[in-house]
Amino acid sequence: MKLRLRVIIALVFLANSALADSKDYVAAPMMVGPQYPIMFLSTVFVPDTAFVLDENDFYVASTYSVVNSYVLSRNSGIKKEQSSDPSYFSDLDNNGYSVYMDVEMERRLFRFYYGISSNLQLQFTYRDFGYVSGTLDESIENFHTSLQIDNQNRDLVDRNKLALYIHDNETKENIYIVTEESPGFMKESATIGFKYRLFGSDSSAFSFGFSSNYGDYYVERGVNESTSMDEFEEHSDFNDQNYSFLYTSKYDGFTLHAAYSSTIIKTSLLPKSPKRINYMFLGINGALSDKWYYVLQGLRYTSPFPKVETSTIGEDVLEIAGSFRWLFRDNILLEIGFVENQTQGAQNVDIALLTNLMFYL
Fold first, then answer.
1. How far apart are CA 336 and CA 341, in angstroms?
2. Confidence at residue 211, expressed as pLDDT on a 0 to 100 scale
3. How many C-beta atoms lie closer than 10 Å to residue 233's C-beta?
4. Less CB within 10 Å around the terminal CB: N or C of the chain?
């Protein structure tokens, strides 16, 4: 109980702030994209309202989140109880990847949006992150047990340890390895993007978005303890692009959001990763009272791993998210939420916790 309280307190006090026009961003979806750590190597889709800021208006926000991920591919030596070494994988007859992941990651995001005109919006996001051994494993196991949810062989691994191994089943090499905690928060990436409203009214809008990452060498290459990726294409900025179509419609008491998005991958993911990651998004938010709001949403996206017949590692991922927002002053909004993976496979994310504190001017 004390651990859960510390996590909640940390989520509140490590949040930072934001400024914008409240009429659109109080009714916006949670701005949280895919939470599977491998996805952070690429430019990802982040849910957003289809409305754009008025000319010369600003929106500034920051988010703090904790992501806990646990995965054991079926040929992991630990899952098969053949070895106590998490780097060991037995041979698997496919040319894809296998994964051992027991990871906790802290992330901080800063957003700056600016209304260039009544239809065009500039968007900038800066992210930093750190891999940590973590403290959430025991709490997650107890929570799953209380709900009679399978802990997916968590009893086979040491609690609160950091280990990430991505194994190439064809070359028999571990091509991506993380076993050391990050030396504090390190730069993850920065994103430049634009959102253009194609058409709409005061109650609905349909927009097109474009974004691309840069400054992401550390998360793509620097944190990797394996040298097997050295032969992969050299890192470069803006090495993938995300395209999105956004729709928002306001009704009495609630707002609906929908989106389709696709990222064109060049060299940001793994050598055998698909060259396109597709996203589908649906969300709803509404008012519980004059001061309290709720958000519920779902994000489905294609796997960063290739599809193979002998594993679920290439199957689509579905993440459900929810939050409560408290407008405790006319221009200050606090949001606390979570993301939970609904697909039990090699891309499983146990839970992500996040907070956002926004100022509207």
1. 18
2. 97
3. 11
4. N
Q: Are 154 and 126 in contact (CB under 8 A)?
A: no
**CA 153 to chain CA centroid, nearest Å:** 24
CB crowding 138-170: b at 16 or more within 10 Å, else e: eebbeebeeeeeebbebeebeeeebbbbbbbbe
Task: Write down the H helix ranges in 212-282.
Answer: 217
Could you tell me the maximum CA-CA distance found in the chain, to the nearest angstrom? 62
CA–CA distance, 302 with 258 (Å, rounded to integer):
17
- Closest of 45, 77, 25 to residue 255, by C-alpha: 25
Please give the DSSP secondary-structure letter assigned to residue 203. S
Token digits of residue 217:
């060498």
Q: What is the mean pLDDT of residues 70-88?
A: 73
- Give the confidence band of 24 by pLDDT, cuts at 50, 70, 90: low
Smallest CA-to-CA distance from 262 within 302, 205, 218 is with: 302
Query: Within its chain, how far is the Cα of 304 from the centroid?
Result: 13
* Conformation bin of residue 231: beta by default, left when phi > 0, alpha when psi is -120 to 50: alpha
Structure confidence at residue 343 as a pLDDT band (50, 70, 90): confident
User: What's the pLDDT at 186?
Assistant: 92
